[in-house]
């Protein structure tokens, strides 16, 4: 891999890329779209040497072979919605965007699978599954912008992990281009296939450091006949833990989401334009519970009876029950309004951590206290997918420019290590969390990750410097 700019090499690699892929697929200079210079992280833009936009797997492979031969690094890009800098270009690197590799290739109702191109937006995948009478359970706030290949590359989590698992659980097969330009096609459509190593797991969650995902085979799930939801106010966090246990026991496989929001989050959302908050301020914690059923005439009364039982048991201070899908959408609007935080709060640092469920409130109190001590006047909002141990944090110092990132990260991640959590629950490592990986992974684990990277990408061409 090169260590300094080389104008001759730059010109040679661009010439070779244009010859192999065509002028329309290789954008340089002023033609490079501004969006390809960064992702949704707070790192800021870094223009690539060129933005390459192939339309076939063979074109991706050709681009990788050319860049590898010239020692030019390649940074794969999907929907650019990542928050850790994993898709942000490196100086002198080629940005390999899959934005033109979109579409549903096939839906197999008998095996309940969908074969799809990696650049396809998640929402398009969801809508295609719905039209075919199925469900793609992966769902997150960036559904309209994120690409399914990027979801696989980061092993995205989202709102319904408690029922369906992470993205990894929804993938049966992959087609991948390796760092040397080789193509590995394992578009398996069978749930049971123990024929040797399950190679797809090398690439799911590796953030584009081991290969470029070009096509995927996704598992389809039965479409729920009804979706039910309740927004609840609780008197304390102990009631949250009790309510989660009661939901798992009483709702069983119907339980599809269990989201928790602390008071500062709730009060901030209430001031967000266009968001209607169905419950008043002043409660210790708020919870959104969703259940998906197979028969509304049976499951809706069951869900309501279960909720009433929790109120009678003293777990709820207040609650509002959905009466329509419009209500369910309104409830999720409260939870998804976090996407408006940049406009409401101004500059801040977002975090995605994992913790033991029982310890979350203690962590929240410790984190708020430590931030206030280190940065008087700092704000911190807490919310997340508590049912699967995932806590999100938005923290910053009002009016500070630049934000004191280092201090905020020291507090947040230092406490994560003390509480036995993880610095990344669903967003990946990328660049921003790489310095903190040692807080939650042993030296032996990190050494093995580096050995895998060196074995598959000995010249360090593919997304170098990310993750490990």
UniProtKB/TrEMBL annotation:
Q: Which family does it belong to?
A: Belongs to the FAD-binding oxidoreductase/transferase type 4 family.
Signal peptide bounds: none
**Protein name, entry field:** FAD-linked oxidase
Q: Which UniProt keywords apply?
A: FAD, Flavoprotein, Oxidoreductase
> Origin, by domain of life?
Bacteria
SUPFAM superfamilies, A to Z: FAD-binding/transporter-associated domain-like, FAD-linked oxidases, C-terminal domain
What InterPro entries does this protein's entry cite? FAD-bd_oxidored_4_C (IPR004113), FAD-bd_PCMH (IPR016166), FAD-bd_PCMH-like_sf (IPR036318), FAD-bd_PCMH_sub1 (IPR016167), FAD-bd_PCMH_sub2 (IPR016169), FAD-linked_Oxase-like_C (IPR016164), FAD-oxidored/transferase_4 (IPR051264), Oxid_FAD_bind_N (IPR006094)
What residue stretches are annotated with the FAD-binding PCMH-type domain? 43-223
What's an example Gene Ontology biological process for this entry? respiratory electron transport chain
């Amino acid at each position: 891999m090169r260590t300094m700019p080389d104008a001759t090499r730059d010109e040679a690699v661009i010439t070779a890329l244009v010859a192999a892929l065509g002028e329309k697929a290789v954008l340089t200079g002023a033609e490079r779209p501004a969006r390809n210079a960064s992702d949704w992280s707070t790192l800021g833009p870094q223009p690539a040497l060129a933005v390459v936009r192939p339309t076939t797997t063979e074109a991706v492979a050709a681009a990788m072979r050319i860049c590898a031969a010239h020692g030019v690094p390649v940074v794969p890009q999907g929907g650019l919605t990542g928050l850790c800098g994993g898709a942000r270009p490196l100086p002198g690197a080629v940005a390999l965007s899959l934005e033109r590799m979109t579409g549903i290739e096939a839906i197999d109702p008998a095996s309940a699978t969908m074969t799809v191109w990696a650049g396809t937006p998640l929402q398009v995948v969801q809508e295609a599954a719905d039209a075919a009478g199925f469900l793609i359970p992966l769902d997150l706030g960036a559904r309209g912008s994120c690409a399914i290949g990027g979801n696989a590359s980061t092993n995205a989590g989202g709102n319904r992990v408690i029922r369906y698992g992470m993205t990894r659980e929804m993938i049966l097969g992959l087609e991948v281009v390796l760092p040397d330009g080789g193509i590995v096609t394992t578009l398996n459509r069978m749930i049971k296939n123990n024929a040797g190593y399950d190679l797809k797991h090398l690439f799911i969650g590796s953030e584009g450091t081991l290969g470029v995902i070009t096509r995927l085979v996704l598992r389809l799930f039965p479409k729920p006949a009804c979706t039910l939801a309740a927004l609840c106010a609780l008197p304390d966090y102990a009631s949250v833990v009790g309510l989660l246990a009661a939901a798992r026991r009483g709702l069983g496989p119907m339980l599809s989401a269990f989201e928790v929001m602390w008071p500062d989050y709730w009060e901030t959302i209430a001031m967000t334009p266009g968001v209607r908050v169905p419950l008043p301020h002043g409660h210790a914690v708020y919870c959104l519970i969703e259940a998906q059923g197979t028969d509304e005439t049976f499951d809706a009364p069951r869900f309501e009876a279960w909720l009433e039982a929790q109120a009678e048991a003293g777990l709820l201070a207040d609650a509002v029950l959905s009466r329509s899908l419009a209500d369910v959408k309104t409830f999720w609007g409260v939870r998804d309004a976090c996407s408006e935080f940049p406009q409401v709060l101004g500059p801040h640092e977002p975090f995605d951590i994992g913790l033991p469920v029982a310890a979350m409130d203690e962590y929240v109190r410790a984190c708020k206290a430590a931030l206030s001590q280190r940065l008087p006047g700092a704000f911190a909002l807490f919310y997340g997918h508590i049912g699967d141990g995932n806590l999100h944090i938005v923290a910053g110092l009002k009016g500070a420019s630049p934000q004191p990132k280092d201090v905020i990260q020291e507090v947040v991640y230092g406490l994560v290590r003390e509480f036995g959590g993880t610095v990344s629950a669903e967003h990946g490592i990328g660049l921003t969390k790489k310095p903190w990986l040692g807080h939650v992974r042993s030296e032996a684990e990190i050494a093995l990750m580096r050995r895998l990277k060196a074995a598959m990408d000995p010249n360090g061409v593919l997304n170098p410097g990310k993750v490990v």
